[in-house]
Design brief:
The protein is of the alpha+beta class. It contains four helices and five strands.
């Protein structure tokens, strides 16, 4: 599986628009300042990843048949732990298949909305 680090650009942002959601500006800034990296996986899609100490964080993913991609990333980067946040139920099922355990559910309230 071919994994390539990419520079953040308008094309990456357009391709990942659906998975970035409300966090697109923050994720763009993290990628542009080197706090996070964009990886492209030929034939599968894109991932935004960042390290927090020894923990790999899957910030955003966009693509198809991502199970082998998660495995390849974990094998390549060899983090002590990894975590991923998602509002999409199918992503939870994918993560369980590659060894992730359910951790928490997050709720948000917005004042005046």
């Amino acid at each position: 599986m071919k994994l390539e680090k990419r520079q953040w650009c308008e094309n990456i942002e357009r391709r990942m628009r659906e998975s970035l959601g409300e966090g697109s500006a923050e994720i763009r800034e993290q990628c542009q300042t080197g706090k996070a990296d964009v990886w492209e996986v030929a034939g599968h899609g894109l991932l935004v990843l960042r390290m927090e100490g020894d923990e790999l964080v899957f910030v955003a993913t966009q693509g198809e048949n991502m199970t082998p991609v998660f495995v390849a990333i974990l094998e390549k980067l060899k983090p002590k732990t990894a975590r991923a946040h998602s509002a999409i139920p199918g992503v939870g099922r994918l993560l369980k298949r590659v060894g992730f355990d359910y951790l928490e559910t997050v709720y948000r309230w917005k004042n005046g909305q």
